[in-house]
Design a protein that fits this description.
The complex is a heterodimer of chains A (473) and B (202). Chain A has 473 residues and is α/β, with parallel strands linked by helices. Chain A has 2 domains: 288 residues, Aconitase, domain 3 (2-Layer Sandwich), CATH 3.30.499; 175 residues, Aconitase, domain 3, CATH 3.30.499. In chain A, 31% of the residues lie in helices and 17% in strands. Chain B is an alpha/beta fold and 202 residues long. Chain B folds into 2 domains: 157 residues, Aconitase, domain 4 (Alpha-Beta Barrel); 39 residues, no CATH class. Chain B has 8 helices and 7 strands. Chain B has a 7-stranded mixed sheet, sandwiched between helices. The longest helix of chain B is centred in the C-terminal third of the chain and has 14 residues. Classes of the chains: A alpha/beta (473), B alpha/beta (202). At the A-B interface, strand 2, helix 2, helix 3, helix 5 and strand 8 of A face helix 4, helix 7 and helix 8 of B. Chain B: It comes from Pseudomonas putida (Arthrobacter siderocapsulatus).
Chain lengths: 473, 202
């Protein structure tokens, strides 16, 4: 007999083919996989070399997103020879192994973690793995998603399973009501700041509490997406009516009686009362302020009203050297106010923050304003479908009139694997997920923040509290 | 996969916290469809100067650490992107094991799948090891996986823990997919039950 179980335990129990030892290793069945052109090639090569087949081709969806250009006029041409080779090999692999592909000219193309939910490919109760760390995004739908490397992609393609070690569980209860202009991005950045870049390493996070219920499904995706920046190998929350409303009538979602049957089952997906978590964290967000990063790790963040910290206040020598190195890289002085730091670039994009609600937030700030002189501002919608919707809603027009570049979809300058790359010394307000050294280009400096904060920085020419701008935020 | 049993070599200290996979393997090395040539990309911005020459200030370019077989690393090593290119590159550079206090989850699994041993020590043990291998004359160590110890010198060693399943895979160098496929019947039976119980998944 089992006692009360957490949501995580329920998901893993329901997908365990067999136990492999008494240390928590199991053979885990994976319901769905999403693959991209840059982490999958060697996995397919491995299958070929060993003469193996794909176990269940329909469980995988392939999407081109990392290397394609995002220039406003789209064609199939890949200007970079390496990227071109990856895309053509990806196409060959999908053809040969019978896997569905959304190529760059497909109207359903976009960033894999934006595309899979909007297609209804991911459903509550699923366990999903993909060769990208931000696979945690799917937690917003009550699925458990996690990133894997290429060897694991090959293992998954060949067996539909992974050799998996059960994680410890961490419940993050988020209480209070964030003020106007505060969004999911601010909540997750505050959590990462508080628990650190490895604060959830070895854990699966379950988000709970009134502030989570109040978030939209897209906001929850932002939250789960960035939980990996705290080291969480997966992050999710119990699915609710908002999730079911989001999924209903999506292209791949079940219909009719099957839908009803699914929803009835998904309503049972929650942690049992009394279930024990290995760790609990409570976050009060009632007095949260808009967050920005000042360093080169996502936990090096502060409220926009704060100042750059002083490394000399850090007693530990190695940590002090890390801080000094981060400030040197970022070109910032201890004690400088974060608000007012001038930028050269503004980027709204990525699987963290480029869905339709993000673009609406940014457009409210951009409307009737102009991008500041000397700033290059780019909008890269999370998917082609998001782009089309934003055009239909008039958001694209708002951005164009304000002087933003309105581009095609892809991962783009979040990791700069395509031709959207910053130069050394450039400073970018970015709605993305990682402010690592060189992430957006060698020597380039990244400040992470919400899409509305990026728009506010773009029109101001410097980091600024979006709430200080006149008009609707 | 090359088995890992007893390995001797030099250990290089790289003790900064949160060294991410973008730093270990920058984006310009991710454009291949095979694993070739990734040794060049490892720590590229740290290892090489703008003109392409080795940066003399970086530990892996200094004697005796330039041929290191092990890295002694800071907390949360390998965080960020899932790119296995980081591990392929380290392995091609000759790195057989990483010794730290904590590793990011995906990176840790990627190491295991490539036969690169990751050892987790307590912070005080790691500090001791880090100080020791920072001195050229004591940078050489031996890792004894069957005995689960890092041999520092005559009669001096640090014991470490490793799960039996991981240890066995490293010692044997076995193909993980081949092992799992031995359970094909079990997977098929599970799958049939699972899809019947959740028909919207089929």
């Amino acid at each position: 007999m089992t006692g009360p179980r957490t949501l995580y335990q329920k998901h893993i129990d329901a997908h365990t083919v067999c136990e492999l030892d008494d240390q928590g290793h199991v053979l885990l069945y994976i319901d769905r996989q999403v693959a991209n052109e840059y982490t999958s090639p060697q996995a397919f090569s491995g299958l070929r070399e060993a003469g193996r087949q794909v176990w269940r081709p329909a469980a995988t969806l392939c999407v081109v997103d990392h290397v394609n250009p995002t220039a406003p006029e789209r064609d199939a041409h890949m200007p970079d020879p390496g990227g071109a080779r990856q895309v053509s090999y990806f196409e060959e692999n999908c053809r040969e192994f019978g896997i569905e592909l959304f190529g760059v000219l497909d109207k359903r193309q976009g960033i894999e973690h934006v595309v899979a939910p909007e297609q209804g490919f991911i459903l509550p109760g699923m366990v999903v793995a993909a060769g990208d760390s931000h696979t945690t995004t799917y937690g917003a739908l009550g699925a458990f998603g996690f990133g894997i490397g290429t060897s694991e992609i090959e293992h998954l393609l060949a067996t539909q399973t992974l050799v998996y070690k059960r994680l410890k569980t961490l419940r993050v209860t988020v209480e209070g009501e964030p003020g106007p202009g505060l969004v999911a991005k601010d909540i997750i950045m505050e959590l990462i700041r508080r628990i650190g870049a490895s604060g959830a390493t070895g854990y699966a996070i379950e988000f709970a509490g009134p502030a989570i219920s109040a978030l939209s499904v897209e906001g929850r995706m932002t939250l789960c997406n960035m939980a990996v920046e705290a080291g969480a190998r997966g992050a999710f929350m119990a699915p609710d009516d908002k999730v079911f409303d989001y999924l209903k009538d999506k292209p791949r979602a079940p219909r009719g009686a099957l839908w009803e049957q699914g929803v009835a089952c998904w309503r049972e997906l929650f942690s049992d009362p009394g279930a024990q978590f290995d760790r609990e964290v409570t976050l009060q967000v009632g007095d949260l302020e808009p967050m920005v990063t000042w360093g080169t790790s996502p936990d090096q963040a502060a409220a926009i009203g704060a100042c750059v910290p002083d490394p000399l206040a850090e007693p530990d020598l190695i940590l002090r050297q890390d801080l000094q190195r981060a400030l040197r890289y970022m070109g910032l002085q201890p004690g400088a106010a974060l608000s007012g730091i001038p930028i050269s670039h503004a980027f709204i994009g990525s699987c963290t923050n480029a869905r339709i609600e993000d673009l609406r937030d940014a457009a409210r700030v951009a409307k009737g304003r102009k991008v500041a002189q000397g700033v290059r501002a780019m909008i890269v919608p999370g998917s082609t479908q998001v782009r089309d919707q934003a055009e239909a809603e008039g958001l694209a027009q708002v951005f164009r009139e304000a002087g933003f570049e309105w581009r095609q979809s892809g991962c783009s300058m979040c990791l700069a694997m395509n031709d959207d790359v910053l130069s050394p010394g450039d400073r970018c307000a970015s709605s993305t997920n990682r402010n690592f050294e060189g992430r957006q280009g060698a020597g380039a400096r990244t400040h992470l923040m919400s899409p509305a904060m990026v728009a506010a920085a773009a029109v101001s020419g410097h980091l600024v509290d979006v709430r200080s701008l006149q008009g609707e935020v | 996969m090359q088995p890992f049993i007893h390995v001797q070599g030099v250990a290089a200290p790289l003790l900064a916290a949160n060294v991410d996979t973008d730093v270990i393997m920058p984006k310009q090395f991710l454009k291949g469809i095979d694993r070739a040539g990734l040794d060049r990309g490892v720590f590229f911005d740290l290892r090489f100067q703008e003109d392409g020459s080795p940066n003399p200030g970086f530990v892996l370019n200094q004697a005796p650490w330039q041929g290191a077989a092990f890295l002694v690393v800071g907390p949360n090593f390998g965080c960020g992107s899932s790119r296995e290119h980081a591990v392929w590159g380290l392995k091609q550079l000759g790195i057989r094991a990483l010794i730290g206090t904590s590793f990011a989850g995906i990176f840790y699994d990627n190491c295991q799948r490539n036969g690169v041993l990751t050892i987790q020590l307590k912070p005080d043990e790691l500090k001791r090891l880090g100080e020791r291998v920072s001195q050229p004359e004591t940078a050489g160590i031996e890792i004894d996986l069957p005995g689960q110890r890092i041999v520092l010198g005559e009669g001096e060693s640090i014991a470490f823990q490793i799960e039996a399943l991981r240890k066995e895979a490293l010692l044997s160098g076995l193909d993980a997919i081949g092992s799992t496929l031995l359970r094909s019947e079990q997977i098929r039976a599970f799958e049939a039950r699972h899809l019947a119980g959740n028909p919207w998944l089929a």
